[in-house]
């Protein structure tokens, strides 16, 4: 299978970080920005960098944007440009569009007009930091929906040496341990008898209110 090709529009902090990381991972990346200086700065760090206005349909067509597997719209401040660009990419037939939203309403509009994935970087990072502050064992927090999330929990001392059956988070907190990470090894089908070791990370899915109880119960760890 051919490697995915990515177009990233808007080389602010968010967009340029995505573009550089993807390039570093060996993917072909087309970075687009209307600001020549930004493109100049990035030209060495990504596969292709071009100056173009993503609200100009002809310019996007000329770049062959529809041939990219994924286009990321990383324009933030100019909400109108973000919406218009997403609409144009959709019309031109880009397979997958990921768009960055500045506000909840902006995000709703982006979904409505066809963005396949809407990202709220500041909101989501704020959420993660808040959970990490309350419970330093929470390494990551991913919202699945309004009510459900996945957390990466660094095994607290109280868990070490005990089996999943003994911990019984399913009965106690109505949460499910989906996987146990031990170093670079990932056990994605843990058994009830599997023992938690020091340094392990548990990947747990559950309702936000239940996860919250579990986090608090293990916050001292
Ligand atoms: P970040 O928080 O990621 O730094 P931001 O949310 O502040 O970014 P902006 O700075 O508004 O986002 O926009 C990011 C980039 O998008 C800028 O470099 C800007 O030049 C570019 N940009 C804005 N409008 C367009 C457009 N119509 N076409 C191409 N690039 C655009």
TrEMBL record:
Task: Write the record's keywords in alphabetical order, separated by commas.
Answer: Ion channel, Ion transport, Transport
* InterPro entries named among the record's database cross-references: NAD(P)-bd_dom_sf (IPR036291), RCK_C (IPR006037), RCK_C_sf (IPR036721), RCK_N (IPR003148), Trk_Ktr_HKT_K-transport (IPR050721)
Q: Which domain of life is it from?
A: Bacteria
RCK C-terminal domain ranges (all copies): 136-220
| Any one Gene Ontology BP term | monoatomic ion transmembrane transport
Q: Where is the RCK N-terminal domain?
A: 3-119
Name of this protein: Potassium channel family protein
Q: Which organism is it from?
A: Paenibacillus thailandensis
């Amino acid at each position: 299978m051919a490697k995915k090709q990515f177009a990233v529009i808007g080389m602010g902090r968010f967009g340029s970080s995505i573009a550089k990381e993807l390039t570093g991972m060996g993917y072909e990346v087309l970075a687009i920005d209307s600001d020549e200086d930004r493109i100049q700065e990035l030209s060495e760090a990504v596969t292709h960098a071009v100056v173009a206005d993503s609200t100009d349909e002809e310019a996007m067509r000329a770049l062959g944007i529809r041939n990219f597997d994924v286009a990321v719209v990383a324009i933030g401040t100019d909400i109108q440009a973000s919406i218009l660009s997403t609409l144009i990419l959709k019309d031109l037939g880009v397979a997958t569009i990921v768009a960055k939203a500045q506000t909840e309403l902006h995000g709703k509009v982006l979904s409505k007009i066809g963005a396949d994935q809407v990202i709220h970087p500041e909101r989501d990072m704020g959420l993660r930091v808040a959970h990490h502050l309350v419970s330093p064992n929470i390494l990551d927090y991913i919202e699945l929906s309004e009510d459900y999330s996945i957390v990466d929990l660094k095994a607290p001392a109280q868990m070490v040496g005990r089996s999943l059956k003994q911990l019984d988070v399913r009965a106690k907190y109505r949460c499910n341990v989906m996987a146990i990470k031990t170093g670079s090894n990932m056990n994605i089908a843990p058994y009830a008898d599997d023992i938690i070791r020091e340094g392990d990370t548990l990947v747990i899915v559950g309702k936000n209110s239940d996860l919250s109880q579990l986090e608090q119960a293990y916050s001292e760890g």
